[in-house]
Fold these 3 entries.
Entry 1:
Amino acid sequence: MQFKYDLNPVDSIVADAIGEPGHRTFFLQGRRGRQLVSVTLEKQEVNNLAISVLQLLAELEEKYPDLAPATRPGRAPQVETSFEPAFRVAQLIIGYDEDEDMIWLIAKALVTDANGAIIDPEDERVPAARFVATRSQMRALSEYALEVVAAGRPTCPLCGRPIDRHGHFCPRTDGHAMPIVF
């Protein structure tokens, strides 16, 4: 597989968001030397990535008992100030290289043809980025990503929908309650 962006290994990697809650753009960003690659994702994709990495780390520690645990991060990963996304992600693939003791993450772009149909991510025309990181770097990415996802708008305790800063009218109250505002 050819990678348009190949950060093997990364110097740094982070999943974060920019913007106000309710209007945030979520992204994955990696740096290798002078090369900085950012790709955009949906909030749920960032959440799923973080959970998947933490599950993979737990499985690796169980499968390889002699493997030193991935260290917990001492501080939040650094986010670069410039944000020029290379593409929106259509597919994420995660894996582990046992020989190198590295976790790799492949992000494939969301690409459409002239008719607006989505091109299969397996197609060679679809750009891809590979991020190869240590287990500790991926633990830091995951733990920080979960904090970023949780820092969004609060959810309504009745209907589970997000509450905007201007308020939220809950459909479960059937019009018999004041709007909920946080």
Entry 2:
Amino acid sequence: MFTGIIECVGTIATVRRSRGDAELTVTSRLRGLGLGESIAVNGACMTVAARRGATFSVLVSAESLRRTTLGALRRGDPVNLERSLRLSDRLSGHFVFGHVDGTGAVVAITPEGGSALYRFSLPAGLARFLVEKGSIAVDGVSLTVFDCDRRSFTVAVIPHTAAATTLGRKQPGDRVNLETDMLARYVDRAVAHRLRRS
């Protein structure tokens, strides 16, 4: 489990593909990563499979390649990184599981004051999990949703978030990983089940 508060931006060092899977090697300033540890890479929960010096590697399954933007990563690309939540940590963002629901794209970026409004598209099936002032993880970054409809939503990105994550480098058309709020998904499932029974 994660919080959507990015620890650092790493850089893809190598991408190796084999039999439908991929191995990503990432250079980062994170230290003390253990083998088998969970780490969110652009919001997708991965397992540290190897580490050496300032790099670590993760194996990306075919399912994760289908569901996320990880398959499009190339050498030199920046990625958002967050280690898993410890029970003693502050929960500054929201509960993020690293289970990407689907991908969207940057529709528009509009400056507003010192911040910027980012409009993202999303798959139609995810719209029911978005609520005004609810949470969403975009490439692993915990953000607050507003102005949402069946095809898109807006978030405000403050200067710190733009500088400390990959969001500040995004351009219209760039694809992103989306994870809706798990609590919204459970409520939706429970309500749907209750309605079917009655």
Entry 3:
Amino acid sequence: MTQAEMKRRTKQFALRVMNLVEGLPETNAGRVIGRQLLRSATSVGANYRAACRAKSTADFIAKLAIVEEEADESMYWMELLIESGQVKENLLTDLLDECIQIVSIVVSSIKTSKQRRDPKSQFTNPKSV
């Protein structure tokens, strides 16, 4: 996937979340979770664009790590919307899947960048150790 394609994809993700948030119930939970989801989901694309302008490989990796965190946080807020009954699961299935795919792409890019930076090192995910 090219940078331009990923920029488009993360922007479309943000726009879809914006539409979702506009349709949330006007409850305290709906408003609070909606704001959190809106913040994290729009941050995915913004931080990806920042990563594309990174000054070094280390900077690129650090900025992609933020993209990963924000996308994962977006998944959390969507899961809460489902589990709290604010939104029916079938309405979020595609959006959650897109978010999972974005996280996977970003994690893969981080691993590839780390290996290119130091090809002799064996990168392992500290979470899997």
